[in-house]
């Protein structure tokens, strides 16, 4: 009887595996591309990178693409994430620490959700929103591989910072903005002024030489007085930004995850 039950269980597992898309069983470890937006080669590279990062920092890093998250739940995208994360027992360590990027292609929804205290420490609310900006610009152009590659690269950067006791905070972003503003306000005008002064000096030298030459070449030069008075230059600058999302919001899932959701 026991052997018969094992046989039935094995058959069910095989049937489930055959119903999944190509290499889906392996994808459930780190990268699951049900929506089939990656080539096999792209999937292999991303899977290897995600697995290496996960093992190095003992925090699972996952990518999941779905045609429509509503196929997995009657609730919202948080419920779908819980179904997948807990249904497939994702995560590492006793707390099953992990970060999952979930894309639902039907309405272009995304969810970046962290499970476990270590993952939530490394990928806090401010951190997740900042991390999303690194891949949303790629997703806006349907550059899926590039977006996922950025997600993995910056996820590792966040894990390194958390390991050093310096997880991302909103102050980091503000500091970067302040430094950039100072550079624009101070150095750019100085550079423009320096170039303008060099141009004026070069023109003055040219006029001086021409005046001296007029003393030796009679009638060859007809000098007329011309004065230009520089007052000011008016420039209008408008920052052109690519619209990558319709806003994002952070929340908690019933399954214990802390997530940031939005559109891509």
Description:
- The protein is α/β, with parallel strands linked by helices and 264 residues long.
- The protein has helices at 2-19, 24-27, 40-57, 77-87, 117-122, 125-140, 144-163, 170-213; strands spanning 31-33, 60-66, 98-104, 109-115, 248-252, 258-263.
- Helix 3 packs parallel to helix 7.
- The protein has a domain at 20-168 and 245-263: Diaminopimelate Epimerase, Chain A, domain 1.
- Strand 5 and strand 6 form a beta hairpin.
- Residues 2-27, 173-189 and 206-246 have low confidence and may be disordered.
- The radius of gyration is 30 Å and the shape is globular.
- A six-stranded mixed beta sheet has the order 1-2-3-4-6-5, sandwiched between helices.
For this entry, give a set of tags:
alpha/beta, 264 residues, 52% helix, Diaminopimelate Epimerase, Chain A, domain 1
Topology:
Layout (H helix, E strand, L loop, with lengths): L1 H18 L4 H4 L3 E3 L6 H18 L2 E7 L10 H11 L10 E7 L4 E7 L1 H6 L2 H16 L3 H20 L6 H44 L34 E5 L5 E6 L1
Parallel strand pairs: 1-2, 2-3
Antiparallel strand pairs: 3-4, 4-6, 5-6
Total number of beta strands: 6
Q: What is the residue-mean pLDDT, rounded to a whole number?
A: 74
* CATH topology heading of the domain at 20-168 and 245-263: Diaminopimelate Epimerase, Chain A, domain 1
Percent helix = 40-55%
**Unreliable stretches:** 2-27, 173-189, 206-246
Alpha-beta classification: alpha/beta
Q: What is the overall shape?
A: globular
């Amino acid at each position: 009887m026991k052997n018969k039950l094992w046989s039935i269980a094995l058959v069910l597992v095989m049937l489930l595996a055959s119903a999944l898309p190509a290499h889906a069983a392996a994808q459930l470890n780190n990268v699951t591309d049900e929506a089939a937006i990656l080539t096999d080669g792209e999937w292999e590279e991303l899977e290897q990178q995600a697995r290496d990062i996960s093992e190095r920092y003992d925090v699972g890093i996952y990518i999941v693409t779905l045609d429509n998250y509503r196929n997995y739940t009657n609730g919202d995208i948080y419920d779908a994430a819980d179904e997948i994360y807990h249904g497939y027992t994702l995560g590492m360590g006793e707390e099953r620490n992990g970060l999952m990027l979930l894309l639902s292609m039907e309405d272009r929804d995304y969810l970046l959700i962290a499970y476990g205290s270590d993952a939530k420490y490394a990928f806090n609310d401010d951190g997740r929103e900042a991390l999303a900006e690194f891949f949303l610009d790629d997703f806006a152009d349907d550059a899926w591989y590039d977006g996922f590659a950025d997600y993995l690269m910056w996820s590792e950067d966040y894990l390194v910072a958390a390991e050093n006791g310096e997880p991302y905070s909103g102050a980091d972003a503000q500091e970067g903005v302040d430094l950039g503003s100072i550079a624009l306000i101070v150095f750019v005008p100085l550079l423009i002024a320096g170039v303008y002064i060099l141009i004026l000096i070069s023109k003055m030298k040219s006029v001086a030489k021409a005046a001296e030459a007029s003393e030796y070449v009679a009638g060859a030069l007809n000098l007329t007085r011309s004065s230009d008075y520089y007052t000011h230059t008016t420039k209008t600058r408008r920052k052109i930004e690519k619209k990558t999302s319709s806003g994002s919001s952070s929340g908690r899932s019933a399954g214990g995850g802390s997530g940031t959701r939005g559109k891509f």
